[in-house]
Amino acid sequence: MAPPGRxxxxxxxxxxxxxxQAGSFTRAGEQLNLSQSAVSRQISALEESLSVALFHRxxxxxxxxxxxxxxxxxxxxxxxxxxIAEALIGESRDKPSGELKITTTVGFGSLWLTPRxxxxxxxxxxxxxxxxxxxxxxxxxxxxxxxxxxxxPSTQPDxxxxxxxxxxxxxxxxxxxxxKHGVPQTAADLDNHRLIVWGANVPSPVPEVNWLLHSETxxxxxxxVLRVNSVQGLMISVETGVGIASLPDYLARDPCESGLLTRIxxxxxxxxxxxxxxxxxxxxNTKRITTFRDFIVDKVAEWQF
Length: 305
Fold this sequence. Notes:
305 residues; alpha/beta; Arc Repressor Mutant, subunit A; D-Maltodextrin-Binding Protein, domain 2; 3 domains
């Protein structure tokens, strides 16, 4: 907190917030379109006005001091609330407009959502979309994004959550693979096939993603010939004949229609999970949010049909 009789300068706080997040004057300056020296001067002036050091300065970067941590928590909270207020104030009364920040997993965002965004932008030219694909959940309450499409129920408070669809996993191989190695006739036959699974020691965006490694014969854990920490990498590995993998239906449907993938053991199904559309309670009545929500609900209905 500022000493009695002194007021915090929001411009300096904004610079401080950027520096704390970036960990360096140079990277913060790039984000704020300021020179490194200008950023450094702002931080020095803020520290002088508060009579405390906000950062430990090291050769490898900047680390927040204890007072700096306390100030950062407040600045971060204020920054998120201001962003929400600016978005609500700036939105057109007549039609949805402004920036829409969307986050979802890398696989779903790249392979299902992105091909459909062109139609959305044609329908609503006043909206500018910023899509961030990330298998780690962003904090919507702090406006790291406006909306999220998630592969599991959200644990964040104060979010509106709508179930979009039920997603299933099935087993796929390429024609080249089955011609060379044969088609498994039973789930137990997978013990003798080349399996591709999600990368080791990497958080999975969905539950039970490596279910194929569990043998039904009691032989223990099956061996994977390849581990990939990318859903796209899994699909491409299957398409090119490396082996067999479990793939979500959103990813496998179009390649199957084009002949690149073959679904094997059709009676065997992997984990299923619900996909959710989530956004902060504060944005419940924001036009660009509700417009995008309705668009996605329609696209899901078309896709499932």
